[in-house]
């Protein structure tokens, strides 16, 4: 039969008993609220013309993709059943979201991406893919005109 004996005076108990807690530090913590943002997000006004002949004016914060802006405002971007069913969802692979930037005096739209250069080779420089076009630069606002379905 094996019995174990544990001494009430084990070395660990003696070590713990002799240790004193560290002195309380005088560090003061305070929670600060985030600084107030003095810059108000800039708004861009986009005049949108559809193949049906309707025109609407959309207001959007700068830095948004044109495709998302049009879809969120319930503007019919994709023309025809095939384009509605077979679009790539904004990846720049299909070319079904082609729009024409008819007026952009304040250079509100981002420059063409390499994807756009590939998909729109031989097309006018005013033709853009809505899924690749960013409205504004996140700092300045402005106005522009877009025509859906330039073909």
From TrEMBL:
CDD domains: fer2. GO terms for molecular function: 2 iron, 2 sulfur cluster binding; electron transfer activity; metal ion binding. Residues 44-151 form the 2Fe-2S ferredoxin-type domain. One of its GO terms (cellular component) is mitochondrion. GO terms for biological process: P450-containing electron transport chain. PROSITE patterns: 2FE2S_FER_2. Keywords: 2Fe-2S, Iron, Iron-sulfur, Metal-binding. This is 2Fe-2S ferredoxin-type domain-containing protein. Its cofactor is [2Fe-2S] cluster. It comes from Chlamydomonas eustigma. The keyword Ubl conjugation does not apply. Belongs to the adrenodoxin/putidaredoxin family. Gene3D superfamilies: 3.10.20.30.
């Amino acid at each position: 039969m094996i019995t174990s004996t544990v001494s009430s005076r084990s070395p660990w108990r003696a070590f713990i008993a002799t240790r004193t807690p560290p002195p309380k530090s005088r560090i003061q913590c305070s929670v600060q609220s985030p600084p107030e943002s003095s810059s108000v997000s800039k708004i861009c006004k986009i005049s949108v013309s559809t193949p049906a002949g309707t025109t609407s004016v959309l207001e959007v914060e700068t830095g948004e993709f044109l495709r998302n802006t049009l879809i969120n405002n319930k503007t019919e971007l994709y023309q025809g059943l095939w384009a509605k069913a077979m679009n790539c969802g904004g990846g720049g692979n299909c070319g079904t979201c082609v729009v024409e930037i008819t007026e952009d005096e304040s250079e509100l739209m981002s420059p063409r991406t390499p994807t756009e250069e590939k998909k729109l080779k031989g097309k006018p420089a005013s033709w853009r893919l809505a899924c690749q076009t960013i409205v504004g630069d996140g700092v300045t606002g402005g106005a522009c005109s877009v025509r859906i379905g330039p073909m």
